Amino acid sequence: MDIIANYGTTLVLVAALFGFLMAWGIGANDVANAMGTSVGTKSLTIRQAIIIAMIFEFAGAYLAGGEVTATIRNGIIDSNAFVDSPDLLVLGMIASLLAAGAWLILASYFGWPVSTTHSIIGAIVGFAVVSIGPEAVQWSKFGGIVGSWVITPAISGVIAYFMFISVQKLIFNTDDPLNNAKRYVPFYMFLTALVICLVTIKKGLTHVGLHLSDGEGILLSIAISIAVAFAGWIYIRGQKYNPQDDSKMHFANVEKVFGILMVITACAMAFAHGSNDVANAIGPLSAVAFIVASGGEISSQAAIAWWILPLGGIGIVIGLATMGEKVMATVGTGITHLTPSRGFAAQLATAATVVIASGTGLPISTTQTLVGAVMGVGLARGIAALNLGVLRNIVVSWIITLPAGAILAIAIFYVLQACFS
Q: How far apart are CA 189 and CA 191, in angstroms?
C-alpha cells in the first residue's frame, strides 16, 4: 500500500508507457498478420494496408474493445488473492506489459508471427505465481482460454474451407466465371459488412452513448450491409475487364472482382482485430489505473478510463506502420499461395471468428485464427498446397511465446520490486 500511496502517479505513467509499448508490439505483429493476406494477394499495397489499419483498427479498439478488456483484466487471475497486497498486482501488471511488449517487438524484428494473447497471458500467469502462488491463477478460466487457441483455428479453418468451396461452386467451376463473379460477389460483400456492423452496433456503440435494442441493431446492420452490397454491385459493373488478361493468367478478371472484395474484408479484419486484441495492451493498464485511483481498492468491476482505449488504438497503428512489413510477408506469402479469392475466404472467416469471440468476451489468438483460416483455404486445394515447413516454424514460435512471456515478466517483476521498495 505504501508503494501506491508514494508512487501512484509514477506507476500510472510507467504503466501507460509500457501499455503503449505493448500496443506497438501488437501493431507490429498481430496487425501485420491480419493485413498480410491483403498484401500477399497484391489487393493492397503496404501503404494502403497501413491506412486501412489506421482507421479500422482504431475504430475497433475504441468502439468495441471494452468487452474483451474485462476478461483480460479480471478473468485470468483471482483478484481476491491480491486484496491485501494491491501493490503486487500493480507491479505485476506493469511487468507483464513490458515483458509481452518487448517479446512482441523482438519477434516482429525477426518476422516471427507470434500470439500477443499468448504473450500477455503467459506474463500475467508468471508474475501471479511468483508473487502470490499458483492459487492466484484461475486455472479453470486459463484452461478455457488455452482450449480456445485450439478451437478457434479449427472454426476459422472450417468457415474458410466452406467459404472457398462455395466460391468454387458458384463462380470458378461454371461456364461463365466472370459474370457469376459479378452476380455473387455483392452477396459476399453483404456477409462481410453484416459481420462488422453487428459487432459495431451491438457491442461498440454503447461506448459513444448510443444504445439500441437487439432488433434495432439487427435491422440497422442489415440496412447498412445492403447499402454496401449495392455500392459494390455498381462499382463492379462499372469496371473495365479485358478478356486478354485471362490468357496471361487464368481467371485474372474474376480475381480482379475479388480484389475489390478484399478491400472490404481487410476493413472487417482490421476492425475485428482492434476490438479483440487491444485488450491485451489496455487490460493490465486499466487495472493499474483503477487500483491507483482508488487508493489500493481491487474490484471485479471497474470502468475503463477515457484515455486508455485511444492510447491502445494509437499504439497499434504506429506499430504496424513502423515494424509490420516482415511479419506481413511471412503470413501473406509463406503458408500457401494466395489469390484475392482465397485471401477473401481466409479473411472473412478470421473476421467472423474474432468478432464472435470478442462479443462473448473470450480473448483468442488472432494469429492462430488467421493461420487456421489460411490452412482451410489451402486444404480446399489439397494438402500439397500448404508449405508445411513454414507452418511448423509458426507452431514452434507459438509454443515458445507463452513461457517466454512468463519468464520475462518474472524477471521484470523482481526488478520493479527492487526499484520501488
A: 5
